[in-house]
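Good morning,

Attaching, inline, the backbone tokens for the sequence recovery test we're adding to the shared suite. The designed sequence is right after.
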């Protein structure tokens, strides 16, 4: 047998090392993909919470009477809301109210605050 024919090809050790490196690369790529999907779902939930909080905030004034109070409820889908209205400075006939809307989902929270002008109570 010629000497160069005996040296051709890969050894079992080289094949095993290449397989282990490929397997580790696949695991890292899989974990990165799963992590990206989890973050995308969390971002979508934040977006939904923000839209729900904006909707609640828009309803304060025309639909919710402006007075010092605290309201809360369940939006479904794991979302819980809370509205806190506190009276601020008053001119006698008008009062500036501090309005805070909080939307919770799981351990995460989205809070929006504004001020609304309304009649004194």
């Amino acid at each position: 047998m010629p000497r160069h024919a005996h040296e051709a090809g890969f050894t079992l050790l080289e094949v095993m090392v290449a397989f282990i490196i490929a397997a580790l690369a696949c695991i890292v790529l899989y974990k990165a993909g799963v992590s990206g999907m989890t973050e995308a779902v969390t971002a979508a939930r934040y977006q939904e919470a923000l839209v729900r909080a904006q909707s609640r905030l828009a309803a304060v004034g025309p639909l919710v009477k402006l007075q010092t109070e605290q309201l809360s409820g369940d939006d479904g889908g794991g979302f819980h809301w809370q509205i806190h209205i506190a009276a601020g400075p008053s001119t006698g006939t008008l009062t500036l109210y501090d309005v805070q809307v909080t939307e919770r989902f799981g351990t995460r929270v989205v809070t929006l605050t504004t001020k609304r002008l309304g009649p004194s109570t």
